[in-house]
Structure formats: structure tokens, C-alpha cells
Amino acid sequence: MKYATVQYRYVNTEHLWEDFNLKAMVVDILRRAARGNAQTRLFEDVSARKKDLDQDGTYVVLNKMSDPRTWGGPFFCGQLLHVKAGVDVPGINGDLDQSVPELELCNLQLGNAARIVEGVLYFLVNGNHVSLIEGQRTKARSLERYLTRLLQDADELDPGKTIILNALFSSAGSGVTEIQEMNIQPLAVPANGAEQDATRLAVEERGQGKTVYDILEYLGWTEADISDLRGNLPEGGTLEGLFKVFIKLRNKRKGSVPKRVLEEALRHLDPYSLQLIGPDGKEGGGLIKLSKRVRIQTTGDLLNPDDAMEKIQETMREWARDGKIDCDFGE
Fold this sequence. Notes:
The protein has helices at residues 22-30, 140-153, 193-206, 212-218, 223-231, 259-265, 305-321, and strands at residues 2-11, 33-34, 37-41, 50-51, 58-65, 76-84, 88-93, 104-109, 116-126, 129-133, 165-166, 178-179, 181-184, 189-190, 238-239, 243-246, 257-258, 274-278, 281-283, 291-296, 298-299, 302-303. It is an alpha+beta fold.
């Protein structure tokens, strides 16, 4: 058994059209004929569902899906794979325990039929409500881009329009609607190796999150720069950071933007790292992004696909019954 985090998202339809329904659209497209093969439906041909999103030798593929006989019901489930197309992987010849001067670094052949899976994501769509379990590399952003390409390739989405899966940020009793200032504080990284492991586990426990090192990488630091900094931290010290964004009007910090604009822009960040400040108050100390930790059966080190999809469905039904989301499961 493993723990995983089910997150809730919803489709931002402001830039699409009023009667847009993501679940109905995806099901309709999957039931269409695969291009170049009128006898085969898209859901029957996995090769027709692969998308080259990054032009880096990898593909994102809609792989396993819920039973097509259930698609007329309230939901659709899917498994998204991030697959490395090459068959060569760097490796070593020999045993790490053998007594030799050095090991040979080489490209290992996996065989023509083998592909490396770099990330797995599970998701459920009910109308315009989406819940998901992210993988190490395959995040909500991957699902956004895949769904966008799927609809564009089916001529259902105009160029320039995109599927955006919003996350709602809130904290009890706040009521902040306009934002003047925003503080983003990634997880501090301790100098001690064991404590660094604890920081990594904290990130995994929350299911998401970035450390100071991640932010430095975004700012253009190389791996060598970061490694040098990590190796020279004083014993007992921590590496901390604070990214501040604010709006000035005529050299005075009093401009503001609607909070909903930031919810879209910040939808992939760890809510624990955010503090939003407006004219009438502030939100922070762990903003709420609807999510739940669940235990899922495993096959080796991998999540069991059927159980993962079942747990997402159970969680969404629970949220619907409790009034946390307004999707309809017909109950």
C-alpha cells in the first residue's frame, strides 16, 4: 500500500464557451474514428492517443481508461503516462560490490519494445470537475496540455484557447477578494543530510511543493552552482528564501488585482508557501486547496491503476455528499 494525494481542480470556462462540458467532450472524441482508420475508434488505438507535447523525445499518452460501457454515466477516468521514446538508457556494466578499479558507463539496450515511463497521473472528470493523483513528473500541467491538444486535434478547440484546471485558494474567515501583495516562501533546506531527507519527505507528505533549490534552478542556477552552495552551507544552518510580488501605483504600494486572477496563475504551487495580502486582510499559514491523502494498493512500486481510479471516485463522491463541490454523481 502507498499513500497518494487526491487533488481537486475545476475547468476555468471563462475563455471557452458557456455550455462547455469537458467530460462529455472527451468521451465524444474518444468514440470517434481514429484518423486514417475508419474501422477503429480512438479509444481502441493507444497509438492514436499519444501526444508529442515537449519535442524532447518523450510522449504523453492517455493509456488505461474506465470501461467505455460506463461513459454514459456521470464520470470518466483515465491514466496518463509520460513516456520516454528512446530504448537506450545510461547505466553501468558490473556489480557495485565487485572489487574493480572502475565501472564502465555505457548505454544499456532495453529492447525495441521497451519504453521508460517517467511519470504516471490518474484523473477523473465529472462535467467540468476534475480530480487527480499526480506523478513525479506528470503533474496537473501535463493533464491541462494533453486535454488541450486532444481537443485541438479533434477540431473542438480553437488555436490559442487552452484547458485550464483551476485550484481554489481560501482560508477560513478571510474574505480577501483583491490582492495587493503576494509572498511566496519555498521550503527551507537544512544543511544536515538527514534533515534534508526530512524536508524531502515533508514535500511528499503534502503531495506537492518546492524547495529553495528548485527556485534557484528556475532562476538559472546550474546544477554545479547549486551543488557548490549545498556543500558549503554551515553546519546547523538552513537555506531559506522569500519571493515578494507587489503592485505599485505612482510609486505607492496600493494597486491591486482580483484574487481569481492569481488563483489561475498560482494553481500549480504549494498553498502552504503562499501568503496573499489585500486592502482588507490577508490569507496565509496554509491556504486551503481541496485535497485528501488516501491509501492505494500497489503492484511492486507502482500504484494499482484500478484502485487509484476507484479512490479518486470515492473521494469525489465524498466531497459531493459533504457539499464541498457541486458535481452530480446521481446520488
